[in-house]
Amino acid sequence: MRIESMLFKQKKFFTRLRPAVCGTAVFLAFMLALPAMTVKTTGVAGALWGEMSVQAASAAEAPAAAPAAAPAAAPAKKDEKAAAKAEKGPEEYKPITPPKLELKDYPKIKGFNSRITVWFIAQLHLFFGAFVLGVPIFVWVIEAVGYKTKDERYDNMAHEFMKVAMTGFSLAASFGGLLSIALVVFYPHFMQYMASVFGKVMIYYALFFFVESFFVYTYYYGWDKMSSGKDKLIHLGLGIGLNGAGLMLMALSNSWAAFMMAPSGLDESGAFAGDVWAAMHSHLWNPLNIHRFIANIAYGGSLTASYAAFKFLTANTPEEKAHYDWMGYTSFFVSMFGMLPLPFAGYWLMKEVYDYSQQMGITLMGGAFAWLFILQAVLIGAIFLSANYYLWCSLGRSNGSARYTFMIKPMAVIIVTAFLMWLTPHTLVMTSQEITKIGGAHHPLLGKFGVMAAKNTAVNTLIIMTFCSFQIFKRSNIRATGKGFWAQYGTTVQIGLYVAALTNIFFLGIWSYYIPASTRIGLSVPQVTTTLMVAVLSSVFDVFIFKSNEELGPPKWGSMPVRSQYALFTLTVAFTWLMGLMGYVRSAIRQHWHIYTVFRDNSADAFTPTLPYAAAIVTGIVCIFIALVLFMFWMPILASKGNGAEEH
Amino acid sequence: MQFLKPILAIVVAYLLIKLGVPFLGSLMHPGTWPVVPSAVMKMYMAFIILGTLLSYTYSEEGYNALIGPIVDVYSNPAKAAIKFGLVFVIGAFGAFVAYQYVKPTFDPPVELRSVHPAPPSSAELWGKSFQIQSLKNPLRDDKANFAKNVEEGGAIFFKNCFYCHGDKLDGKGHFAAGFNPLPANFTDVGTIAQLTESFVFWRVGTGGPGLPGEGTPWISAMPVWHTLLSEEELWKVIMFIYDYTGYAPRVTTEVK
Amino acid sequence: MERKKNSLVELAKILVFALIIMVSFAGYAKFGIPLVIPAPPPVEEKITGAVTMDQMIAMGDKIFHGKGTCTLCHSPVGGRAPLLEQIGTNGPARLKDSRYKGKAKTVYQYIIESEKDPSAYVVAGFGKPGTNDTVSPMPMTNKGAIGLSDFELDCVAAWLLKTGGLPLAEIKPPTGGAAAGAAAAGAAPEEIKPAATAEEAFNKFGCPTCHKVPGLPEGGDVGPDLTKVVKLAKTRKPGMSAEAYIFESITAPNSYVVKGFDKDVMPGDFAQKMTVSEITLITKALLGEK
Asked: Are residues B28 and B142 in the same domain?
């Protein structure tokens, strides 16, 4: 009941202690940096080391360990020595070979399935981690915008976003701790090996964890104190520090996950050669970093959008409704901003997977997991449909939207058509009668939709149309009043641009059927470029067209229908579920390896789960996550209710 | 009547896919009617219905126009008859779907089948090993007796093969309707026209049971002809089916 | 009070809504998508004892289509790699190709070379893009994820040669004794040590499989009972000592076949395989000497 007041006290406490906190942080940093230079598994460093490996584990990602988990037993002792030696000096360095584990080397804890337990905890950690890494990025941008425009609403909104993220921060940390314990408990030999390779990095990881905490608390609790003048700039600086530390945390933990998929820094026999940087800098590290960075923004945005939607639905006054409507819209915008380039980052990651190992790539796209990508297409389709629906509903806020509503149905037709093309599987499931009618297992028309050329065309069309929805929304409440060329004919130019882009994308898509497969892949580049060109050019044209404009009455914030808010929930749930699914596949393509090709998983859970099995687990995880998040949203209401009662 | 529009849109979309795709497909592959497989159709319709509902409910007016009649039917006592009718129809539909799921069926389980699987490098016929890759029809070189060989091949065809593959070699023999998959239609460009003689030799000689796994040997009724015909007879009948249909056997280019 | 209730109801609604969405996703995964069961983790086959060429070919077939994951690429579906069914014609052609720079002199050597070092010769059109067919996209099959042992590589080669209709003479199936070693990739083959005791010698050559042998608890009855040979050895061949008879029976089994047993059942190559000390140990043990 007194949470609010407790928070308030805390806030005071923290702001007063600011210098003290700074000093402590610096001291802690030194404490950590020292052992990091001469890592020994004794004393302070030893204690930290334990924690680190926990973090490392979490970084390594539970689902990864889970589906593909593997081995290493007997040489454990040797490893330890080798690790210790390795840190002492390169001249004494002895290569660390991944141990060969047997079934009995995996601890069994009654009542727990090792892999599923780790899977749950790791995925939950990742959900919260992605959330708290993503939110500060756009919070900082919004705060900066508020500072630049001197519009306090932005500042308040950024502050509120941060408030939501704060609970997430502690939950992410708790799950991280739980994950490290779970990994050490269930996969001790694996963790020992990981620590022997990444010991140093794990130390740095822990260091950045403290740095991150420092920035989070100062950034959030110092918000009101440092709200004007030079203080505000310092505050923005803290925000940069926060995001920098967050990025480092993500990159370090990604390096473990990437190492497990595409190990590097190992010699011919698979033994670690002692160069930590080489081990970190594996082939998939940067693709993974980029993909996750973008996805974090989109995911953070979708979660805050859900928060706003929840507040909108429970709001009692029109002002509150208007505020949360606006907040929901901004979050949604942020989420879309991340979502649109995400498929391209995904394609890049995929390409790098192929480059790293054709075998892994084919297993992914043509082997056991081919159908997973149909499910992925359905999920992404759900995300795009709900996003467009929200935008269409948003037209209701504007006074001049009637001019554009005629476009919605044709756009819906294009989007749904592109989407159907996208989810048409490569191998069609047919009954024998159908095979008889079709005259074989190959469908002359639908078979053409199964290949990459059609998929690329479809996804680019989807993105262009979604962007078009967005542009329509942007201009629905204003009218150009200029007299120049752009005001007069700008829209015509834009229409031409869209038509040209779609024609180009379709032409490239159709053309690519007639050229050899090796050249065909290259055509996706001009397609993507076309899409990005439309987004950039058309936005620039907007600036010229509406150089001088008039507003058609104030936007009706708060007038959104309830169902539009549920579109936001759909977005979040689909996104979360999709992340869970992709976590599964990223880990599962390692198949029966803890560390692909190097460290075999000989546990009882070494088998690769089937899609329905994984879907059931992911659903379970997402249920827990959504319940936790809703509880997180609801807590403040509970608190304010208590306060309200007191005031009465 | 506003609420009928989306329903109409869904029906139109359904018909477009149901008929349009096979129509376009039949243009690309004449002689067939490539229906949309029901599994894909279900997926398509789910998203078409979803997309239609979304595009009709984004505005308050559209939403009310769609929901209004439903609310009206369910809350207006004067329309009780329609309401119960609707409840019945919905229930009946559910029952129909359930029935479709549980009713016994004689359909074989769905399988992915490769029609012309890759041949092995060698096959055992008449106790001899044949190298499919380099195998040539020995009778082709005998230009003098070409007509005679073809004629004899024809006699063999009509004594053995035509019951299934038909007197016009179009796969519509007397027994054809009893088979699934259908007997091969030799007049189609997709069968012998794109195959080498050695491939046909292997297929005829080892029959259905000689198919590799991806060709689902358990669902082919083709007999193992090398147990019934001689090597020479086999080559002759192959010459006949090519001669009759007017196709030339595919010739593989020399291995680089 | 009313307000709190309100928010809880909204919460419940959202939760139910989220649940419906998730269940529909999971339901689609379960019912809308054909079930594909990923291959179970490959079992590392341990081979001990003698293996025939036919077994090697069968094993090679299994490895090719399973553990070796070869068919991911070497299949007509994707056209990602040359079709190995044509090795019969292609193999010799490759060796004669002017682009061939490897060390192989025979198709067998060529196969083994390609398995271990795929880039030694890249078939035109199958190289990594941009390398002008100098680098192969194929992984080394004796390393990494596939990690076949030398014996397994031989099995695959045997199978390939057989399907290509080429001679198999170059491949030597392991003849038993020590583990043929499918276990660790690249591990040096264990050296075969001469037996130190009679019991070791009996077991090393598999005598108890067919004979009852003095001092060993179990024995087969395919061959004569050797616990009685102490008494009978002298009487089998007139004029031949017991030692000489036993020696002859081991090194040339067909020279005297006990009544009721068949010729050619006992292997005739023990003369090549046994050491003198082993034969001595066995003979002495059979005659009850120390």
From this structure: no
